[in-house]
Amino acid sequence: MHYDVLIIGGGSAGLSAALTLGRCLRHVLVADGGPPRNEASPGVHGFLTRDGIRPAELLRLGHEQLRPYDSVEVQCLEITSIAREGRVFRAAGFGTSDDVPVSVTARRVLLATGVADILPPLPGFRELWGRGVLHCPYCHGWEVRNQPLAVYGQGRTVTGLALLLSRWSPDVVVVTDGPGHLTLNARRRLRRQKIRIHEERIVRLVGSPTNDLQHIEFADGSQLPRRAVFLHAHQHQRSALAEKLGARHTSKGAVWVDSAMHTSVPGLYAAGDTTPGTQQALLAAAAGSKAAIVINESLTREECPR
Fold first, then answer.
1. pLDDT of residue 6
2. Domain boundary at 231, 250, 265, which?
3. The dihedral of CA 237, 296, 77, 264: what is its sign?
4. Which of 42, 93, 191, 204 has its CA 20 to 30 A from that of 79?
5. Which domain holds residue 48?
6. CB proximity list for 11: less than 8 A, separation 6 or greater
7. Domain match, 28 and 112 both
């Protein structure tokens, strides 16, 4: 149970890294801890050659394309702890299907565990997540183009997202669920783009049986028909492993990495939504491949000293 690289996370970043490392003849274990963040979405968009593919199908193809690489293992594991032991990491956890304890060692560790979204505690947001409640115009804007849209939030964040969405639709409304804390300049910019502002309290989002948004219901009894609500949801790391190892985090809670995807902990790397930057499946896959190349070259230098 000793590996060159332990990859924790079986999404786009983790599987992409495993593919590259497998092609480098590296002995790799992918600890796949469960469903991806985009599980609720009907499709992955903007992924060249796979535009619109269902998230589960994209991962199935990833697993299928790893099979020829005998040095790569993918297991359903929840890694609960990592500790440094000399020149290697020791990771412990359990099988997600059988609860059997597992302990492995690896020369390098790549965290591709991603983030979890914290949605507003209002009826409808969780139920419509991925279809009527969306987070990324680049991922979903085309599917709701020219439709009546809403942007949920307050302050500078909601202003920027609403202005961005005006590229996809001429009918965008900001809903703040109470005081919007918008500056006079923000209100002027929104008004210039014909973006209205609703600061009435929201009661709930009302959807169809297929989880498409129908309208937003407010405390005063009014309803606002909308096709989708976009928001920048708060997030937290899906795994606390980086924090437990003492890895540096950014002010927004992402795991800090340098230009080589290396965290502040020697031998520990991170890629995908775990790290700062734009969150998109294609970019996560690219980051995973980049991290794999860096890791392989690091191992090679160790094996071929001067």
1. 98
2. 231
3. negative
4. 42
5. 2-116+235-303
6. 36, 37, 59, 112, 114, 272, 281, 284
7. yes
Mean pLDDT score across all residues of the chain: 96
- Residues 26 and 170 occupy one common structural domain: no
Backbone angles phi, psi at 59, to 5 degrees: -70, -35
At 198, which CATH number? 3.50.50.60
Task: Residue 70: count other Cβ atoms within 10 Å of its Cβ.
Answer: 9
The domain total for the chain is: 2
Same domain, 96 and 9: yes
**pTM of this prediction exceeds 0.85:** yes
Q: Which helix (H) or strand (E) holds 189?
A: helix 184-192
Is residue 94 located within the same domain as residue 151?
no
Residue 26 makes CB contacts below 8 A (sequence gap 6+) with 4, 5, 71, 296, 299
How far is it, in rounded angstroms, from Cα 76 to Cα 241? Answer: 17
Asked whether 56 and 281 are in contact (CB, 8 A), the reply is no
Is residue 91 domain-shared with residue 225, that is, in the same domain?
no
